[in-house]
Amino acid sequence: MEHNTAAARDESRQPSAHDLEVLSRQLGRPVRDVVEIPARCICGNPLVAATAPRLSNGTPFPTTFYLTHPVITSAVSRLEAAGVMNEMNDQLAADEDLSAAYRSAHDAYLAARNAIGERSGIGAVPEIDGISAGGMPTRVKCLHVLVGHSLAAGPGVNPLGDEGLDRIKEWWTADKCYCEGAWDTAGEAPSRDLSRHGPQGLPDIVGRPAPVRKSAATAEAPE
């Protein structure tokens, strides 16, 4: 029975073509290198996408759990705009138990990423060894990352991600579907990739500086 349950969980993690289309519509761009769907709405739509630890272009990618549902991302953005991350950083500085639990969340994030790398056949990515995301293990720099981690891992793993979920209950709760009208479902899904995921986004990891972008004036100047 346990084996069958585990198999069902494994199957539900695998992204279908429909999942990838929904993710592209949620984000407004075509998704790439999504290897699992670790959290779903009660209706089945993705809430969080798990991205491969190494992108198909070779770039190491430490942000494993990417929060995608527009209702949740908007709610978390409200918290960030209200200064909640500063509050959380103050909590970390003042509460040793919370700080220890947050370090454990960092370790759990790394373990989950390694497991996803193994399941997806990518294996270890030494360039990001020990690097998690969102400011872990000592600070809060992106609450979206922490909430995405909590949704993917379940309660009790990331204390500040759990707190973030508790604080957005006014706008989103796990027991209700908020998908209707949350993203554009008309026409074709986005097909043009305008994201900047690539070596230029991670100069410290890939070991070379980001390219210098020319200004409009420079680009238009005659040679």
TrEMBL record:
It comes from the Bacteria. InterPro entries: DUF501 (IPR007511). It holds the Pfam family DUF501. Residues 1-22, 188-223 are annotated as: Disordered. This is DUF501 domain-containing protein. It comes from Pseudarthrobacter oxydans. The lineage of its organism: Bacteria, Bacillati, Actinomycetota, Actinomycetes, Micrococcales.
